[in-house]
UniProtKB/TrEMBL annotation:
Stated name of the protein: NAD(P)-binding domain-containing protein
Boundaries of every Pyrroline-5-carboxylate reductase catalytic N-terminal domain copy: 3-91
Pfam family, one: F420_oxidored
PANTHER family named in the record: PYRROLINE-5-CARBOXYLATE REDUCTASE (PTHR11645), PYRROLINE-5-CARBOXYLATE REDUCTASE CATALYTIC N-TERMINAL DOMAIN-CONTAINING PROTEIN (PTHR11645:SF13)
InterPro entries in the record: P5C_Rdtase_cat_N
Domain of life: Bacteria
Length: 253
């Protein structure tokens, strides 16, 4: 069991706390989001303290602040040598993180999503990947990356998730207009995607294209859809958005 502190208790931190609490860790959270912190205390029995007390009570710290809040919140705080740091703050570079958390120097940066709580969330990681695996593996596989630029590229891919959800929502809205049943339309759309991806072999490169091509054969509705999306510029728009997000993250380093 480890003593874990969480600075910045929001929608990213809460699933991490749930997962870690299920493993019996002793957890103290900051009250930056008082509603979420109170809910975690009521459900899991975690302690709530101000940020410096969180640091003082912990050997491992999860930094889950919005990137623009990292400097004003962390700069006044005092860390200890030997403390381990897990940062989920996109755009806060390893160099800046090391400066803010000195003399603590054992760092790892990663990208969790909310379903980490239930397992199956791949964690791209730069730094002490063994620390991340000890905390969240094997249920959530750690994907080491060779440098910070690669981590930022994975952050950009994570930004695809709400974009894809937005497209699925548009599809569900279209289906609702055809059927008049919004609940069934959203269930069908989300379950269709979740079921397909859940059953797909994800163990080797090229599987996404292979699955696409197996569906989008000559004369099929699937080919009509993929062709329309390509001709409409959907792929170019996606790649442009990924490049812009990547450039934004690199500029923040």
């Amino acid at each position: 069991m480890s003593r874990i502190g969480v600075i910045g208790t929001g929608h990213i931190a809460a699933p991490m706390v749930h997962f870690l609490a299920s493993r019996g860790h002793r957890i103290t959270v900051s009250a930056r989001n008082a509603r979420i912190a109170a809910a975690l205390r009521a459900e899991l029995g975690v302690a709530i303290a101000d940020p410096q007390q969180v640091i003082d009570a912990a050997d491992i710290l999860l930094l889950c602040l919005r990137p623009d809040m990292a400097e004003p919140v962390l700069a006044p705080l005092r860390f200890r040598a030997g403390q381990k740091i897990v940062s989920v703050m996109a755009g806060v570079s390893a160099a800046r993180l090391s400066s803010l958390c000195a003399p603590a120097g054992d760092l790892v940066q990663t990208i969790p999503l909310g379903f980490l709580r239930h397992g199956g969330c791949p964690l791209a990681a730069f730094g002490n990947t063994a620390l991340l695996a000890d905390l969240f593996g094997p249920e959530n596989p750690v994907v080491p990356v060779p440098h910070e630029a690669a981590l930022n590229a994975h952050f950009a891919i994570c930004a695809m998730v709400p974009g894809l959800l937005d497209l699925m929502n548009s599809g569900a809205d279209w289906l609702t207009r055809q059927t008049g049943d919004a609940d069934s339309a959203e269930f069908y759309t989300s379950q269709l995607m979740a079921g397909f991806l859940g059953a797909m072999d994800r163990g080797r490169a090229g599987r996404l294209a292979a699955e696409r091509d197996a569906l989008a054969t000559d004369g099929t509705l699937s080919l009509q859809m993929t062709t329309a999306l390509r001709e409409g510029g959907a792929h170019e728009t996606l790649l442009a958005a990924l490049s812009a997000i990547g450039a934004r993250l690199e500029a923040a380093r």
